[in-house]
Amino acid sequence: LRVAAHAETVRVGEATGAVSTGAWWAHQTRQTRSAVARSMHLAAALAGPRTLVRVALAAGDLNLDQAEVIVRAVEALPSDLVTDEIRAEVEAHLIGHAAEYDAKALRVLGRRALDVIAPEIGEAHEDRVLGREEAQALAAARFTMTDDGHGKTYGRFTLPTAQAAMLKKALMALAAPKHRAAVQGAGSLRRPGPERLGRALMDYIEGYPVEKLPKSGGVNATVVVTMTLESLLGGLHAAHLDTGEKISAAQARRLACGAGVIPVVLGGKSQVLDVGRRSRFHNEVQRVAIGVRDQTCTAEGCDWPPGLCHVHHHTPWHQGGETSANEGRLLCPRHHTRAHDPAYTMSKLPGGKVAFTRRT
Questions:
Q1: Residue among 313, 326, 320 nearest 281 (CA)
Q2: How many Cβ atoms sit within 10 Å of the Cβ of residue 258?
Q3: What CA–CA distance (Å, rounded) separates 297 from 336?
Q4: What's the rounded Cα separation, in Å, for the pair 309 and 323?
Q5: What percent of the chain has pLDDT over 70?
Q6: How many angstroms separate the CA atoms of 209 and 259, rounded?
Q7: Which partner from 128, 170, 193, 281 sits 20 to 30 angstroms from 359, CA to CA?
Q8: Where are the beta strands (DSSP E) in 67-173?
């Protein structure tokens, strides 16, 4: 490493046109560039301020991996909080533990070294690092789901550590052997694995209190299951979700027993859907019925789902229009605004859709 540092000083690679000493070294010795880059970084550090690491490595008190970890730990110390004297103390502290800890353990010790050497600085640094990491994690939060078209949906997510810990604890509670034994019997007493955690996520979704969900389109964000009375009583006709998917009759009957869905039974006893002039806004029952009927925004070419739509009166309320399922239709915010814009005319199309035309 001392030879490599000297080679960098005299620019050995320039004689052959190499872009760097590291590139020349990698080519001459058939090493990978990444491995040589690590060696060159360590060589530069040992030739510079990391005297204690250089002496310990030469004496055999450190191996190369340990030396590299200590160098990077010292370099990671915040320059605006740490003096050269504190850096030297951290360096000596980590070298002193090299006889009992391998490189992986030393890396962990290096992250906490300031808590031992300079606790007041360590706390300030940790708070700043955690704040930065949390902000980055929040910006990186993602969630995607993909339906494979054969009854299964795959998902991926990125969560901040705190929220991930909350989710994990909730799922582990649902998948815990004691809870499973109470629900399924003593035969389920085993450590939760991926399958059990998947079932726990299903329980978590189905059992989440619907009254705690915000309203979307005037209706609690719960799934609407539409089925015939025959299917509810034991038939085999598939049921439909208001999100567009189909499920089996058996699955629909099971969900109809839960609190996390709204069953809409065609041919069964209905609820009052017409409240005339006594209310300006459509109530939740009416909104559910309109959503089941319209499926999406009724503007031609628009596919916004019911939960993101408004309910529009065919005859405006201020002109004597009534509030009922028959007199309402789904329109997304953009098309609802256009329906009340005097610059556009709205005309009904066959099949229940509407079209907008700019006035001339």
A1: 313
A2: 14
A3: 9
A4: 16
A5: 76
A6: 8
A7: 281
A8: 142-147, 153-158
User: 220 forms bridges with which residues in the sheet?
Assistant: 215
Q: How many helices (H) and strands (E) does the chain have?
A: 16, 12
Distance from C-alpha of 324 to C-alpha of 274, rounded to nearest angstrom: 4
What pLDDT is stored for residue 102 in this prediction?
92
Q: Per-residue confidence at 91, pLDDT binned at 50, 70, 90?
A: very high
Check residue 133 and give its pLDDT.
81
Beta strands in the chain (DSSP E): 142-147, 153-158, 215-216, 219-220, 223-228, 239-241, 246-247, 261-266, 310-313, 328-331, 344-348, 354-358
Q: Residue length, the chain?
A: 360
DSSP 151: S
Look up tokens 């005309």; give the residue. Answer: 347
| 286, 288, 291, 294: CA torsion to nearest 10 | -50
Report how far residue 45's alpha carbon sits from residue 29's, in angstroms, rounded to the nearest whole number.
22
324 closest CA partner among 290, 296, 299: 290
Could you count the other beta carbons within 10 Å of the beta carbon of residue 204? 15
pTM equals: 0.45
Q: What angle do CA 296, 205, 308 make, to 5 degrees?
A: 20
- Mean pLDDT check: name the lowest of 174-183, 193-202, 290-299: 174-183
- What single-letter amino acid sits at 17? G
Q: How do residues 238-297 score in pLDDT, each as one tens digit?
A: 776 766 677 777 666 666 555 455 555 555 444 444 444 445 567 777 887 888 888 889
Give CA–CA dist 261/225, Å, rounded.
Answer: 7
pLDDT of residue 148: 86
DSSP assignment of 262-308, as one string? Answer: EEEEETSPPPP-B-TTS-SS--HHHHHHHHHHH-S--BTT----GGG
CB 294 within 8 A of CB 325: no
Tokens of 311: 């309910």
* 323 DSSP assignment: -
